[in-house]
């Protein structure tokens, strides 16, 4: 991990050349709440890249949250959001593909995730892997 990650490009690749500090960094640091489920999902991808377990657990709904997170040595290659859909004001679904490598072998995770907003904060509930 770079020491100067706030000056680095955001891993979520939301926009070309967007800086981490101006994108997911604001949510992971706690400076702001993710305004949409998609923004939360992107920030959770970036948190996986940076192994920010506390943020991942904090943004996980208590009903499905694991006790703790272990990170495998993973080379994250990129995120593509396929669709984002609000079911109502406080429920949303996001489909995405995340690509990564473990021990040099490439993997693709495609997931349809559900999110709920509680007390103004979007939380990851669960997802179906495609
Ligand atoms: Zn980002």
Automatic annotation (TrEMBL):
It comes from the Bacteria. Residues 36-127 form the YchJ-like middle NTF2-like domain. Pfam families: YchJ_M-like. InterPro entries: NTF2-like_dom_sf (IPR032710), YchJ-like (IPR023006), YchJ-like_M (IPR048469). Belongs to the UPF0225 family. HAMAP family: UPF0225 (MF_00612). This is UPF0225 protein LVJ82_15235.
């Amino acid at each position: 991990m770079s020491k100067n990650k706030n000056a680095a490009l955001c891993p979520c690749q939301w926009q070309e050349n967007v800086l981490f500090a101006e994108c997911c960094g604001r949510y992971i640091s706690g400076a702001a709440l993710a305004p949409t489920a998609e923004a939360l999902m992107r920030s959770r991808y970036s948190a996986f890249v940076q192994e920010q377990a506390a943020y991942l657990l904090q943004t996980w709904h208590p009903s499905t949250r694991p006790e703790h997170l272990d990170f495998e040595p993973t080379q994250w290659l990129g995120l593509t959001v396929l669709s984002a859909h609000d079911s109502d004001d406080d429920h949303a679904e996001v489909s995405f593909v995340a690509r990564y490598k473990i021990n040099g072998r490439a993997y693709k995770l495609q997931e349809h995730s559900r999110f709920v907003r509680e007390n103004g904060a979007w939380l990851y509930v669960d997802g179906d892997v495609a």
